[in-house]
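Sequence, please.
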């Protein structure tokens, strides 16, 4: 278990790169980007050095095929989608230091230089393989672009890599009556040469890294060791599609680097690009070559092997001394009403739709309350309204507003000077200090949902304290003490909630009479009460309760947005 201590650390916070084929849904967001944002904001609050990077994964067959269907250039389609996704993340208040893209010149050059080194170090070989080719579209067809009949269950729309009906993993050559997913014509098998990463050669080094890395969570460690025990196989590095980074290997003209083997290197290139843009072109090395750096990867559980085996193997094969992943923070799946998100089946909510119906902090708060840290979690509108009404409004919002209103009315909007503390006052003050430590410890272990639960417990204790002390009935000096302590708790809640709901925390901060940016403050200030005599403005509720009618309007709005999208395509 990681604890907060006085020594400062350098962190590289990495969120899995979203693919620009479509807008991410809520499950994608909580699995990587939003969780990483909370971690980055918290680590900055405790005063550590943080660089938070991610970017758009722009290359590969899906974008190329979609561009063919639309009759446009893949680059134009990818750039347009990248711009949309980047702007959405800004609206979600994601605090990236650099949100890059795999079409960045820095990334393209880095990937080519990187793989030249891996090739020169003897970890790349070529081999001839048979792949399906569509004569009509003049394109080799990777797994998902072959459809046919499943040999196991007879489902006639099985993909080349998996049958969605029976769940069996497949190879394209196993399909009965295969056809091109783009045009429907019958493809033909052709021999093509590809380049492979000799992953098995690094088995021993990888096993040592995983076994000796005490920071890896049990699920990542166990899955990785099982994969190693089953035996590693070489991984394809190249594809025949044109939309991608040209492979730098001798004789590989016309080939591009396979998108999965390219995007993971974006964590490095995005860091390089960030410091180049800052005018500090050598500083990236502190984050990638200094063994004291802690690099954390926020991913979904299906992405674990790429970050505990393939990416570390590539770093080792380059022989450049790169820092290996310090840990991965992987989530289970967020389901929608018990089902997997599916655009084709209209199951789920997408991050652009969400922002059209409720404030961003409502969404952030609900998603982090449901973060699937230990098991799959379910999202439903019933959960949404319950969490907003009970936790955000009635628990947190109600406590804050009651205290501020009493302060404004009973003490003319000035923070009162406290008198002698009762045992109850001392107890709540001690609780603030105790909980700040416990919450920080949960955050250091990237258990955001667990930490949020403790924040709610602390706020609930504030409500109980207020109901017990009844400052509105007390004599002036005793009431002043109770309000002084309660205002201290509001300040603590504002700082604790900042990583989760930054805009709302800033509003709470301002309602306490502070005029600066809450992000300029530090976690340790939780222990310091609001200064006596500080003026607070007239209080206004920060949150509001939702009704069934609000949810009805939201679902109707989302359906309307989807209909508009369909008609415009």
């Amino acid at each position: 278990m990681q604890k907060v201590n006085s020594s400062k650390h350098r962190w590289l916070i990495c969120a899995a790169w979203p693919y620009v084929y479509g807008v991410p849904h809520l499950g994608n967001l909580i699995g990587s980007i939003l969780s990483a944002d909370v971690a980055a904001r918290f680590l900055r609050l405790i005063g550590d050095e943080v660089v938070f990077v991610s970017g758009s994964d722009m290359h590969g067959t899906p974008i190329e095929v979609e561009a063919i269907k639309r009759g446009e250039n893949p680059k134009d389609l990818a750039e347009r989608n990248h711009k949309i996704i980047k702007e959405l993340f800004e609206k979600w208040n994601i605090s990236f230091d650099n949100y890059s893209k795999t079409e960045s010149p820095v990334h393209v050059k880095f990937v080519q230089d990187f793989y030249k080194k891996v090739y020169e170090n003897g970890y790349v070989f070529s081999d001839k393989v048979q792949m399906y080719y569509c004569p009509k579209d003049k394109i080799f067809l990777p797994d998902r672009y072959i459809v046919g009949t499943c040999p196991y269950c007879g489902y006639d729309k099985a993909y080349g890599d998996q049958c969605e009906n029976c769940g069996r993993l497949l190879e394209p050559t196993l399909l009965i009556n295969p056809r091109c997913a783009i045009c429907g014509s019958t493809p033909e098998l052709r021999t093509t040469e590809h380049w492979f990463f000799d992953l098995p050669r690094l088995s021993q080094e990888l096993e040592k890294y995983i076994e000796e890395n005490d920071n890896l969570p049990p699920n990542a460690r166990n899955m990785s060791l099982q994969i190693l025990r089953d035996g590693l196989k070489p991984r394809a590095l190249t594809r025949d599609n044109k939309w991608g980074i040209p492979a730098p290997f001798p004789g590989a003209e016309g080939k591009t680097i396979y998108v999965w083997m390219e995007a993971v290197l974006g964590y490095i290139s995005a860091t390089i690009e960030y410091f180049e843009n800052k005018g500090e072109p050598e500083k990236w090395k502190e984050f990638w070559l200094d063994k004291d750096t802690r690099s954390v990867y926020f991913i979904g559980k299906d992405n674990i092997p790429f970050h505990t085996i393939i990416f570390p193997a590539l770093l080792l094969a380059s022989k450049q001394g790169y820092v290996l992943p310090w840990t991965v923070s992987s989530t289970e799946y967020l389901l929608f009403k018990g089902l997997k998100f599916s655009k084709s089946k209209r199951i789920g909510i997408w991050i652009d739709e969400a922002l059209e119906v409720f404030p961003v902090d409502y969404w952030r708060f609900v998603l982090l309350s449901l973060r699937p840290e230990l098991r799959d979690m379910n999202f439903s509108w019933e959960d949404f309204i319950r969490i907003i009404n009970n936790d955000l409004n009635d628990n947190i919002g109600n406590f804050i507003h009651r205290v501020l209103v009493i302060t404004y009315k009973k003490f003319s909007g000035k923070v009162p000077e406290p008198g002698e503390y009762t045992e109850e006052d001392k107890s709540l003050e001690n609780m603030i200090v105790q909980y700040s430590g416990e919450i920080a410890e949960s955050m250091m272990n990237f258990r955001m949902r667990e930490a949020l639960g403790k924040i709610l417990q602390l706020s609930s204790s504030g409500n109980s304290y207020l109901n017990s002390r009844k400052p509105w009935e007390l004599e002036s000096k005793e009431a002043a003490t109770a309000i002084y302590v309660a205002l201290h708790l509001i300040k603590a809640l504002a700082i604790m909630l900042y990583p989760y709901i930054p805009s709302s925390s800033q509003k709470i901060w301002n309602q306490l009479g502070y005029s600066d940016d809450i992000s300029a403050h530090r976690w340790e200030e939780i222990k310091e009460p609001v200064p006596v005599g500080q003026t607070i403005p007239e209080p206004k509720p920060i949150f509001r309760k939702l009704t069934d009618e609000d949810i009805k309007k939201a679902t109707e709005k989302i359906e309307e947005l989807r209909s508009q999208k369909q008609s415009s395509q």
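The chain has a mean pLDDT of 94.
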